What does this fold into?
Amino acid sequence: MVTVTSLVFVLSACSQKAKENEQPQSETAKSVRYPTASVQFIKPEYEISVPAELKPYEQVSVYAKVSSFVQQLYVDRGDYVRKGQLLAILEAPEMEQQYLSSKSSEQKVYNDFLYAEQAYGRLVDASKTTGAVADIELDRAKGAMESAKSAYNASKAGTAHSSQLLQYLRIVAPFDGVITERNVSLGALAGTGNNTPLFMMAQGNKLRLTLSLPEKYASSVNKDMEATFTVSSQPGKIFAAKLSRTSGLLDQQDRSLTLEFDVDNSSGELQGGDYAQVKLKLQRKSPSHWVQNNSVLHTQLGTFVLTLNDNEIKRVAVREGVRIDTLTEVFGNLSPEDHIILKPSEEIQEGKLNN
It folds into this structure.
């Protein structure tokens, strides 16, 4: 009997001790609090840095259009030339002979046309006297005149063609620029079948600053955007440019938007072909949701934020946008009234919190 009473006492004491141990844990669970911050619905201005390339505003390979030989060269690598300036003269004796032949044929056909025209005119005058000229003779003369006129026009077009081919023997500069390469010497064969250009030309007084802007920044581009950039050849020197044009569509290979800035280089400080580092100030066209950087939870199932509204935790799937300083842009089912848990973890469960 004493043994049973002692056992009951021990079990009762253990049960009481267990209840005492459970009570602090329950109270601790009820007292859990998570620090939160409100979602910001804003459109801040932010700055990014992207690589770019300086290219000549215009660059061209100058070829000979007709098969010929180089007779004279007037420029060399490094020479500055003006639009229309003579760069080289080619020779093709057979083309000159063809032009003289075409010109001679044109003169003969023209004389035939004048004769037919005069003959028709005389018959028209004679036909004014009744019965002097048969109608069929008049029609025949008119037909001969029109045929001669057509032949003359065709011959004149042939002569113009030969004359145009002769003009191709004079190689002139298509724009103001500098000769970057000279690939031929006197007497060299040029023209059809030769894939080597006579000259390479580039416009150096105006440059294109070209860059590829990642997709997530593309909607922040505006037509008045300005850029500052530096080049490695002139450390510490900052240059400025204004947006001139965009590709308008994302490149399907790297999902980027191509931007071009025209750069005045009349001073000759910059060189086409330099790589540049560009800084852009961007801003969304409309506000978006932003949260603290440490509020974004990355898991194997995706990217989330945890909202704590009315003492209830919910996990909201989001897609990250731009990150600036302490804020990250997120896209998802959020509103400016939401409160976001600042330090989320996968252990935090969805549902109501105990009071």
Confidence is low (pLDDT under 50) at residues 1-30. The domain at 64-88+171-202 is CATH 2.40.50.100 (OB fold (Dihydrolipoamide Acetyltransferase, E2P)).
